[in-house]
Fold these 4 entries.
Entry 1:
Amino acid sequence: MTRPRLNDEPHLAVRALRTRQAENVDVYSFFIAGADLLKIADISRVHRDFQGALHGFQRKQIRSHVQSIVDFLDQGAVLFPNAIILAISERARFTQSRGEKPTGDTRIADAGTLRIPVRLDGSKDAWIVDGQQRSLALSKAQNRTFPVPVVAFVSQDLSVHREQFILVNKARPLSPRLINELLPEVQSALPKDLSARKIPSELVNLLHVGEDSPFRKLVRRPSEENAEAIVTDTAILQMIKNSMNSPLGALAPYKPTASTSARVDEMYHVLVAYWTAVAEVFAEAWGKPPTESRLMHSAGIIAMGSLMDRILLRRPPALNDIRAHARNALIRIADKCHWTSGRWEELDREWNDIQSTNKDVRMLEDHLSRLDHASTFSKVA
């Protein structure tokens, strides 16, 4: 049985390089307009039929992730060189270019034209192995001609598609901590979810290196080994994000708006002033490992950050001395805090029983808030 001539049916033609891997499996590399990806390639969703048999391999669409990529692509002139991996059927045709190879050619790949069928009945001769969320986003992006790199291997065997899908996705993703540390050094446009993490990450870096920062050299970062570093960067990052995102947060007034840039210097000033007061009032607990001081524990950092928002919200507008204001408020509750020894009677917990769980953090936040309220009310009375 002869296969139909591809030139007699609709197809997409692209300039491509062809090489071979495994047992003479053709592998192609080429560029394609993002909007054309889903014209030639299908997404094989994982599901089971009524008899329980497994079909496909791709996870469900993550709409928020797709939309974040669309938002990034629609910013304008962006760099997006992430390759899509396809499996294609043998119906695709490759015609090698004629002519002599250039001097010094490694002869690893042949240049030519790849023609991929575009069937009128809607069926596809290619399947997305990696990059389904990106492919969906590219199909929705304003720039319909955005060039996307593609690597495609010839196979119609679903088991091979699944094998490659697993191999591509089993690699350990980048540590969020490493991404957070790198973000302040990236100057180009970023997707919305990463942009939101950039300012908090920059502030964590400043707190770690600032000469006037109480956190100087105390922050554990992926880029350095430092025996003095005892506070995890994720705890400080979360504390900052909480304050920035709360309408009543101490850092919220300095966030970027549609017409103004973020006032990072003022955020840093607030953080240094408040946490210097914390270090002074709880001097016996400051700078110790979390195993010896729950103040330096993730739960303590986040809970005390929540208290920062409460205390600084009461600061009179004319009072510029944030440190003194915070210090006075903290002194009033100091004897009821048990960071290094004793027992939180109201919580029915030993000092070192406080853990980095959402439940414990919320419990500690609420308790510190009640202590602050009681001491403030008592002072007014």
Entry 2:
Amino acid sequence: MKKRVLTLFALASLSLATFTVVSCSDDDNNNNTENTTPSTFVVNRDNLTGEINDGDVVLESGTYKLTGKLIVKSGAKLIIKPGVIIEATAVTKENTAIRYIAVAQGGEIDVQGTASNPVIMTSTTKTPGSWGGLVLCGKATINKGATASAEVSELTYGGTLDTDTSGTIQYLRIEYPGYAYNSEKEFNGISFFGVGNGTKVENVEVYESSDDGFEFFGGTVNTKNLVVINTSTAVVGDDLFDWTEGWKGTNENWYGKRTNGGARGVEADNNSNNHNASPVSNPTIKNLTLIGNGAGTENHAIKLRVGTKGKFDNVVLSNWGTGFDVEHTETTTYANNGELKATRVKFDNVLTRTSGKLTAPSSTVPGDKINVDKVFSEDATATGAGNGTSIPAWAQNWTVGI
């Protein structure tokens, strides 16, 4: 009898111990913070600003007020849980600091949004250009020099490590970014400065930016499922997508739409000071939809210039004055020899399919115009980002304004 009681007691203890372990494990999985490294940075939900110099900083839930610049330095990581809202406050006389988030070389960001619970970076002022947006600086190759200083944040970027990582971004919505210091120095929705292909970027929307939605300054970062929407008539914004300085990423599913008088769908450059600078911009973009409003001073669906290469496939262009505008001798050469090419293109209400211009006027080319029709091949069955001009299935539920 005594032996049976002891046995039952032992079994009960074992059951309790098992229950306790499972409970802790479930809690850790929900928070996903069991492997984090302590940081000296102190999070203030109502005053999120400063430099994260070490360890992992976790933003768990609810709303955080961004009151200045937040810099993630080398060796540190910013982890943002599903559903978190980071809201940039308005610049005031008492606090003139520009609000933005930047990841320096060696730092990382981990945005853990989901389709049903995306992470949102927004502003208390619901106007394009109200805050700076997100800046990533990596160690991948650029053609501006061995390294350079980012035009916004002034952080160093570039190097020789094309496999570098700046972290992971999944299901993120950035609203009302694009703050401008002046006409030559403006933030984008997300600025990728020399970001390497070890970085994961999937399911990201930029909504109502006063400058470009996504801009790539060299690097090798790849992306999937990107959305840019511009509708504001007060601040019309710039290009939906933009690249320069030797970017070589591989991309899938881009959807861009503007209903206002903003600029181009894509503005693609290599290097404005040296069109032959190496590495040459040469991204691959598969499944692309660009929708304009049929007006504006730069009414090009895709502007290709200063020596960029690139490959596009399965493209839908709707409501633009010009489909492909190719400028500068190097770029037009690539357009005619197949190094700059768009296959399976569907035009919808596009006045002029292509236009082209050499670098300098030439007496042998009347009007400085050239034939760049080889830049594309047409296909009326092209689906673009997945559903023609309509909302792609992958963009439903977590985006706005689309």
Entry 3:
Amino acid sequence: MKKDDIEYFKDLLTNRLEELLSHADNTVSGMTAPKENFPDPADRATLEADRNFMLRIRDRENKLIKKIKKALERIDDGTFGVCEKCGEDISASRLKARPVTTLCIDCKTKEEAFEKALGL
């Protein structure tokens, strides 16, 4: 992969990581704010449902943060853009769509077909 491409993906991943980390800080501060008291059980249930939804989103973002950090490590050690299974280069279009990917499209397709066959 060209040095310019590596720098592009490094900047892209770094910016995305900073954005996700700022969301995490906002969630923590929002969760520690004084709790509101709702006399109506339906209002309280709505608040709890909203909080649970927000926590699920943040959990997914936390997993993405870990993947981004691993992708940045791969950039540093020179293995970014190389499929972990077959060792072939991952296409630039795939990396642009999913910069944290570790598999080329062929290997990912095979993996998904295998998981589908097993019912996972």
Entry 4:
Amino acid sequence: MKLDLSPPVLQRPTRVRFGVLGFACALSMVTYLDRVCVASAAPHIVKALGLNAVEDLSLAFTAFAFAYATFEIPTGWLGDVFGPRTTLIRIVLWWSLFTAVTGFVGMTLPGGIVLGLTALVVIRFLFGIGEAGAYPNITRALHNWFPFQERGVAQGAVWFAGRLMGGLTPLVLLVLIEGLPRTMIDPGAASADFLVTPILDWRQAFWAFGAIGTVWCLLFALWFRNRPEEKATVNAAELALIGEHKHAEAGAHGGVPWRKLITSRNLWALCLMYFCASYGWYFNITYLPSFLEEQYGVEKTSLVGALYKGGPLWVGAMACLTGGFLTDRFIRRTGNRKWGRRLFGLFGHGLCGLCYLACLFAPSVFWFFAAISMAAFFNDMTMGSAWATCQDIGRRYAAIVAGCMNTVGNLGGAAAGSLTGLILKMSLASHVAADGLNPEKLTGAEKAAGHVLGYQINFVTFAAVYAVAVVLWLWIDPTRPVAPDSKPPPVA
């Protein structure tokens, strides 16, 4: 009897797909660097624009989230039709441009043009259009390059990288634009002593961040290919591994079954769940830095304060990896993909809501930091499951399905950006009216006192929204594709 000596049997699979994952993780880091830096630089922007407080930027926060949500599906469609390579290069160059343009806000340009608050809102909207395409097209790339049993970990790694960079961004900006005074480490040091002197001002930091995205595009264009069979360094064994349990799928298509997508209860449950998840989470990249400064007296130039401001994101980063690993491990051990994705959504969002309630009773900044960081941890434990589900039910339409989920999710972020600020303004107005204060001459302490009730209402709202997310997870079935193929894949 002859042995089968075909290449897939004899060869050890190459690991080119992990190079794809490396580029995806790097891009995820760039997206968070560019979006979180606005919240961290908000006090500088407020000053440059002559505004009173960070809630005056709520329209700019909302403009980004609304544009990000609105253009998720179109950019996902572009990725499915033209491939993630071309689509990602175009959108990263686009948003990098508007990252750099943000650095001109508040300046008087040639011709006497001043980029004021209205210009910032427009810039943030245009920036959001660009960033909208990142994660749907990353999802499409991972769908092309990874077998389903590795998707949870791959998606978890992408979100780990993004959240980690988001958490580190306040510290990066602190070192770049404020420097690192020795007094942060040694309170007894001379005030003029710096471990690291300021390197850039806040405007130059935005210009530098825009340049980073351009460099990523150049390297990505040279290395990445849309599908593994287009990459010469992928051997037959890796091709066989990636293609296991997959049908033959067209690399690009135009006939999207929109009616099936729009009428899919499964997809609607997934999208609404992500709306709830984003609603509470957006607080971390909008109002949290100002909350810590105002309510707990965290200094703008404090090293510990920078860690507190970014803490929920880097704690959440660990959960992205953990959740991705757990969902894939559960599926490998049990063969049950439905509960392999669903279980960690139920568990994560349920505990996240409880942590937001715990924020109300924090006796100090440390305990508040612990509570809100654990809220982020349990929220992000669901990320691997949620995004792997997009691949599971989307299949050849993975980018469009991911775009649908992220569209509705970021509408949740847009709603949170507006409603959180509105609740704070109403709380402050009520406090001013009750105590007969002059709203034009409020001290910092009076503003902090006026915002207390508003923050409490917001945290209760976040907890309630996560309770709804728990219920929605019970309706999500990763084994039911939105557009079934003529020959269904093996049950897994």
